[in-house]
Amino acid sequence: MKQVKYISNVSVSVKMENDVIRFSLDKPQYGGNVSQTKVTEKPKRVKMSRKAKLNELRLYRLKAKKKMTSPNPEVRIRYKLEKAKRKEEWLIEKLRKFELPKPPLETYDPEILTEEEKFYLKRVGEKKKNYVPVGRRGVFGGVVLNMHLHWKKHETVKVICKPCKPGQVHEYAEEIARLSRGIIISIKDTNTIIFYRGKNYVQPTVMSPPNTLSKSKALEKYQYEQSLEHTSQFIEKLEKELEEYQKHIRRYRQSKEVEAKDSPSDM
């Protein structure tokens, strides 16, 4: 008898009887050596009904209302502080989605210009009216694309940053120079940067860098950043209020203790 083939757990064998070939199927016999795997059932998730969810939400709102209308100022301040910190964590998680992977550092050797060339390019850039605005969205792909479009006909281009925080113009200048491969000629009036395209400038096939945000994403990121800034300021204000209230309570208790000590002696 020869075993020819195995199909799943059933074996097919060939038998010779009186010069006649017969096929037969043998059922497997599980012995002690064969280990049987145990199937573990996953715990079923208990689904809440719509009514249970509404009751839970009403209970949460009732607790929040009690804290907001509490006669104790410390309870009200702590409730606002916890709520603001939860919002701050949520905004930080949202902003992490806009973090782009940093590309590998490329060797970039900007052209060396003499002082006379820089002075000439600065005068040319100030006289010309072509400019690229950088608004509340900050630096995104559209800013670099517009610079390359200006560099088709002009050697220089002005980048005007409004609104711009103190010191932010230098960060913008470095970021734009890295993305556009332009040369910074001068930074004027704390919000105007003049860029030079270079002597050997060649317009790239893809003028908008791939590792930048789109216009809509840049606006969404700005809105989250503004909300995070206001929330952080509100948290600092609440922490100061809580600290002042605790100091007031300590002074009040100390004065009460002093009055309690002095009252028996007066009698």
Automatic annotation (TrEMBL):
Keywords: Coiled coil, RNA-binding. It comes from the Eukaryota. It holds the Pfam family CRS1_YhbY. Residues 111-208 form the CRM domain. Signal peptide: none annotated. Transmembrane segments: none annotated. Residues 228-255 form a coiled coil. GO terms for molecular function: RNA binding. PANTHER family: GROUP II INTRON SPLICING FACTOR CRS1-LIKE (PTHR31426), OS06G0304500 PROTEIN (PTHR31426:SF3). This is CRM domain-containing protein.
